[in-house]
Every structure is written in C-alpha cells, then in structure tokens.
Amino acid sequence: MAAPTTARRSSTTTAPNREGRGARPPLRLVDDARRKAAHRRRRARLVVVVAALLAAGTLFLLAAFNAMLVTGQSRIDHLQKKVAEAQTEYSANRLKVAQLEAPSHIVEVAQQRLGMVPPPGVTYLTPSEAMAAQVDRGAGHASTTTPDTTAKRDGGASWAAAKPYLGGNP
Amino acid sequence: MLVALAVLFALVIARLVDLQVVAPGHYAAAGLAQRLRTVPLTAERGSIFDRNGAELAMSVEQKTVWADPREVHDATATATALAPLLGKDVAGLRSKLAQQGAFAYLARQIDPALAAKIDALHLAGVHLVDESKRFDPAGLLARSVIGDVNLDNAGRSGLEAQYDASLLGVPGKLQIETGPDGRTIAGGREHVTPAKRGSDLVLTIDRSLQYEVERALADEMNQTSARHGTALVMDPTTGEILAMANLGRDDNDQPVPTTDNRALTVAFEPGSVNKAITMSGALEEGVVKPSTVIDVPDQMRVSSAMFSDHEPHPPQKWTVTDILTQSSNIGTIKIAQQLGVPKTKEYLQKFGLGQTTGLDFPNETNGIMKSGHWDGTDIGSIPIGQGVAVNALQMLQVFNTLANGGVWVQPQLVKEVVGPDGTETKSPAASTRRVVSQETAKQMTAMLENVVKVGTGVNAKIDGYNVAGKTGTAKKPDEHGGYKSGAYFSSFIGFVPAEAPKLSAIVVLDEPHPYYAGQVSAPVFARVAQYGLRLFKIPPPSQGLGVRVPSAKPTSVDRVD
Description:
The structure holds 2 protein chains of 2 kinds.
Chain A lengths: L1 H20 L10 H70 L1 H11 L15 H17 L3 H5 L5 H4 L8
Chain B lengths: L1 H21 L1 H12 E6 L6 E2 L5 E13 L7 H12 L3 H8 L6 E7 L1 H9 L5 E10 L7 H4 L11 H5 L1 H5 L3 E6 L12 E4 L6 E4 L3 H18 L3 E8 L4 E10 L5 E3 L4 H4 L9 H10 L8 E4 L2 E4 L2 E4 L7 E4 H7 L2 H11 L1 H10 L27 H4 L10 H12 L3 E3 L4 E5 L5 E3 L5 E3 L3 H16 L14 E10 L5 E14 L6 E8 L6 H4 L1 H14 L26
Parallel strand pairs in B: 2-8
Antiparallel strand pairs in B: 1-6, 2-3, 3-4, 3-5, 6-7, 8-17, 9-10, 9-22, 10-11, 12-15, 13-14, 16-19, 17-18, 20-21, 21-22
C-alpha cells in the first residue's frame, strides 16, 4: 500500500530537475521481484565465494596437517631407528663388558700387559697352640660384649683379638 | 555416434559400479597388501648367568644381509660390491643374487658396523634385517655345560638345548603401511605384536671357580699327557654344582674344554672309590666296625676268578680302617662277602649307581649296574669297582652322601629361571633320601680322613683343614671285554672340611702318565679345593668329627689302588 504513494511523490518532486537538464530517460518503477532476484544473486555469489574460500582454506589446512603428519612420522621413524641403534650399541657394550670381566681376559692382561706371575703356592701361617688359645679367649670375650653374628660367621669376631698379634702387619 | 557414446558411458558406469559396489574389497585389499609391510621382531634369547650374575652366554643383535633377486638389477655389479665387505667370493654371491625366488641369505649375523657400510651402498634388492647372535663372553669356559645354539638360535647341546623352551622367547611382528620409498605412511595402519624376551637361567656354577678348575685340569693334563680330564666341585649340603669342567685335546694336542659334558655322558669303571659303598653298607648293617680285624691275604679265588691286591704282601691282620686306607681289594671283597650279594647290591642302588642323577642333562648316562642276577665272580669284582660303571657325578654323589651325614641330596645345576618380567622361579627344592645313618657317615668320614692323612691320598692334603677322600685307579676296558694295558682312569674324590663339609670334588684323568691317582688326581683336588675354600671364605671348623676310628698304617701314593 505504501509503495505507490512513494513512487508518486518522487515523480512530482523530481520533475523540475528533469526539465532543467534536458533529455533524460523517463523514470520508471523498479520491479520488486527483479530487485529481490538481484539481491539473491549477489548473496549467492557471496556464498559461493565464501564457500570457495572455506574450501580452499580447509584444503590448505588439510595439506598443512598432512605435511605435519608426514614430518612427524618421519621424525618418529628417525627416532625409532636411533632407539634401535642405541639398543644395539647397549647390547654390544654389555657383551664387551662381560668379555673384559672374563677370568681368562683378566689373567691374560695381568700376565702379558702387567707382567704379573702366578704365585708358586699359597703359604698358610699356623698359629701356635698358645696363641690360638688366647685368640679363642679373646673371641669369646668379644662375643659377649659385641654380639655381631655376621662377623662371627666369617671369622670377623676373632679379628679384634688376633690383630695385636700381627704386629706391624696391616 | 550418440549411441556409441552412450554405450561407452554405460560401460564406464558398469565398471564403476563393479569397483565401488560389487567388489570394492578386492582392490582395497590389493592396495593394502602393496602398502602393508610386516617386519619380524626377533625375541632375544635369554642369558645364562653364573651364581653371581656374571654372564656366561648372551645374545646380541646383529644384522643379516638378504636379497630379493627379483629386485636386483645387475647381479654381477652387486656381487662385486658386496664380496670384499662380506669376505665372500663374487661367483657365489652372484649365483645367490641371480637365483629364482624372492629370498636369499647373503650373510647372517654380521657386525652392525659392517652392515652400515653395506646399507650405505644402497644396492637394489639387498636388504638388512635384525637377527640376534649367541655369544659366550667368557670364551670356552664351561662350554660343555652351557652347550651351544645353531644359526637359527635353537639350542643344540647342553643347557641351551635342555632349557631351549625357556630361553627362546616368543617372536613378535610389526605391521605398518609404507610408501614406495619405504617410508611409513603417516596415519596408516600400524599394529605391533611385541616380541617376548626369553627367560634367563641362573646357574649354580661359580665362574671364578670354574676357571680355576679348568686351569688346574689343563695344567695336570699337560704334565701327565692325559687324554681327557673331568672335575666337579659341589656343595654337598645343598647339592649345588659349583664347577663342572671337561677337557679334551685340540688338533694341536693342547688341553681345551670339550663340547661333550663327559662328567655326565661318559661312564667309567670307578675302581677303588667304589669301596666306600661296600664299606658303608657293611658298617650300616653292623657286619663290621672300623676296628674289626680281618685276615687279608694278597690274593683270593672268588668263583672262577682270582683276585689280588695291588702289591704282593704276606697275610695281614688289618682293621677295616686299614683295608680302606690301604685300598685292599681282598679285604674289601671279604667284607662284601660278609655283607652278601643282596645287601651289596641294595647299597649300590641306594647310593644312586645305575640311576639318573635327576639333572636330566642331555645325553646323560645312568652308568651300568647289574641289578639282576649276579655271577659268582661279581661279588669279587663289583665291590671293588669293577664290572660296574658310573658317571663322575654319580660317584661324587656317593661321597656327598657321606659328607652330608648319610643323606643323598639331588644335584642342581640351575638355581633359578628369571622370566622376562623379572619373575624369579627357583628350581624345585632338591629331593633328599637317607642312605646310611649319621653314625655310619661319620665313621666313613673318619676312615676317609685316614686315606688322606697316611694313605694313598696324601697329596690331597690342605694346610689347616682335614680332608676326607679316596683315590681310585681303574683299568680301562677294551672292545673285547678285557682291559687295555697301561690305560687307566685315575680319580680322586674328597670333601673338606671333613668335620663339616662345605666343598666336595671329584677329579678324573683319562690315561695319565704316571697313572697313580694319588700322584696325579689328588694334587688337582687339593689345588681346586684350596681355591674354593678361599673363594667361599670357609674357615676350618672349631669342632672335631666326634667319632674315633683306629689309626691306619701309612702307605705310598705310588701304587695302583
């Protein structure tokens, strides 16, 4: 209802200007449907552009993400290889240590590199009966004052009693 | 024209439907198969440790070089490039590279550093794969006990074979999708079935003692030109085998550890050491006492056979202690006759002769023991260690029983099995059985002490300790049922400290010169036992044995007994 009124009003108000400028196309009423269609086309174009931009952006993101994945996987592969190498090296070192600790190797080094020789025999010192009795008495005394069962088991309890008889020896 | 286009279009549509609707899985699977790569993950074989955790056998990852001949462009060029690195001839490599099929081993279990050089050549069709290799870091030490594995890491002999199932582990696999360049496809399928490492074995063997025993045996073999030497050291109270050495001779006639565990696989006539069983049975049954006096001539007929003592002597009135110390055949036969065949046989069996030791070691022999009817001469021969055969461990077990107060304790070689997750599974407790009373065992120990103090075993003496033991010098049988001339097994078995035994040992030399056991085997026992006493910090006991036996008449070591 309002549209025709507006159109009429505008035609009356613009008439003097048209006369003043000379020949101008006559004013016409714009069809509302065409205007809406144009508006829809503009909006569609905008949607297409936005969609295209979104699609391009998504593709770009996907590509970037994939590149990151590939780079990450490559790094994982590299690290896994390094881990495997480190494990191999560890095993090799473990073997080397075991070989170096082997009695045959130690004897070889002692004799050939350090010039050591096997002793001709082991000399045992047998204490006299009197000394042994004294040591026994000392050990008995020590065990009453310091009940160290561990020391007793491997002869350690006698040590304090035997020490004075060793003189200058360590 | 339009119709043709329509038909063509229809064909394309039909193909599309076929690919996408009718059988989409087939092509997807084919694609996946192209991308999917399965990498075998080898299970590391468990280690073998000594009782202190020193590694005696271990597996280390190595590289194996293999080829896919279909991928090889130029077999000759590839072979020429590889030959100097692998130390192989070009022709052999070329034939492998040009053979039919998709797989050929070029070199197995090579050093990773060398493998890296091959990898750097980027040879088409040549690939590397991880494969573990077995190493014995202590060299040939305890070789016959540990055994060995084949190229595929399967146990072939010794403990490696006996405990193969525990040591082997379970292999795993890794499935990944890879591109044409071999790189992993990010986000692709990846499935890992981890490999399970094999269990570890912890032995009762002590590496240091084992080395010393092997060295002592080798020295004695060098001095006596013996063909083989066997020695075992045990803790008689627990049955743990602390050292088990077997030496033979290499191509240069030098003593070297054998692959064969002769201590368990070779049966020999024990000779005089067997008299300990006869005496123990007679004491246990109350037939004789250590002080019982017996008339002992130097020879005697038993059924159809004539037996004699090692040296001629006038008829003697010897105590049972004297008979053992002098190692008199006639005296022992007389005691066995008093004991009787059924009881003599019973005690031989009770002490474990002719029976398994319980170790279940591969190729272990039970020896030879006449459990059925005995011929008339058997009561003469078997009580003195002839006509019966034992392995070294069986005979040591006889003396272990006496050392352990008359209780036989099953021997043990494996202390525990440690699983890949660290779970320790101790070996089942050693089974035990009483063979003779504690009193009999003590009397026997006291008599065996005499053998070392004044008898044939004086060379087994150890300063500061009392040693109990017995020598045995037994002729070697020949292929014709008789005995070889001048060929003997010379053995000494003993334990120390006699009052509270902690170590026992047997030393057996095969064809030594001289062959008197007291001269050749007893000194090895002394050396080995002395080392063991120091190693395990075993002090001389403060209390005596608690039994008295008559003192024995001295005798010489330079004699067959």
